[in-house]
Amino acid sequence: MKMRILTAAVGAAWLLAGAASAQQPAAPPNLDAIPDQMPWATPYGPPISADKAQAAIAAAAAEAKKRGWAMDIAVVAGSGYLIAFLRMDNAQIASIAIAQHKARAAAKYRRPTKVFEQGVQSGLNYLLTLDDIIASRGGIPLIEDGRLIGAIGCSGGTGSQDETVCQVGAATINK
């Protein structure tokens, strides 16, 4: 009996030690490194058309509906201004503004909002001081013919759910 208790205690300690070591943050990137090329420098193109924005929303909404997720979905032009929006039935009210914020940040900064989420999680807290940043995945730039024409933002689920729905909508443009 004592052997079982000792074995269980050692096993629990080993699991806790493994979990603690797995949660150690990665070393922050070298902020003094100077890249040869400008990162995230996709040129801006003409604003996305209303028809293309609606097609991206329709694809994203179909994916969300297929999975049983109620989402708010926004598409903005490269400037960050709203072109189209859908609030699915029973989607969270707070997610209306969040979906638009994700789309706006993805367009203005020309990168997926997941980049900001990863940056903050790795200790780059200065990102939170930049105007219009949202450190939550679910915002994806829309690129046509090598030019950024807008972005799609989704909110209402977990970050991974939001991102999954956004990827389907973005795929109608990002080919």
Descriptive account of the structure:
The structure is a single chain. With 175 residues, this protein is of the alpha+beta class. It has a domain at 50-170: Beta-Lactamase. It contains 5 helices and 4 strands; from the N terminus they run ααββααββα. It has helices at 2-22, 50-67, 95-108, 114-121, 159-170; strands at 72-77, 82-87, 139-144, 147-155. Strands 2-1-4-3 form a 4-stranded antiparallel sheet. The longest helix is centred in the first third of the chain and has 21 residues, at 2-22. It starts with a helix and ends in a 5-residue tail after the last helix.
Give me a quick take on this structure.
By secondary structure, the protein is an alpha+beta fold. It has helices at 2-22, 50-67, 95-108, 114-121, 159-170, and strands at 72-77, 82-87, 139-144, 147-155. It is globular, with a radius of gyration of 20 Å.
Helicity, as a percent range: 40-55%
Give the beta-strand count.
4
Average pLDDT figure: 89
Proportion in β-strands: 15-25%
Order of helices and strands: HHEEHHEEH
Shape by Cα distribution = globular
Distance separating the two termini: 63 Å
**Sheet of most strands:** 4 strands, antiparallel
The class by helix and strand makeup works out as alpha+beta
Q: If helices are DSSP runs of H or I spanning 4 or more residues, what is the number of helices?
A: 5
Taking pLDDT < 50 over at least 5 consecutive residues as the criterion, the unreliable ranges are 1-21
Which CATH architecture of the domain at 50-170? Answer: 2-Layer Sandwich
What is CATH's topology name of the domain at 50-170? Answer: Beta-Lactamase
Strand order of the largest sheet: 2-1-4-3
- Going by CATH, what is the homologous superfamily of the domain at 50-170? Haem-degrading domain
CATH class of the domain at 50-170: Alpha Beta
Gyration radius (Cα, Å) is: 20 Å
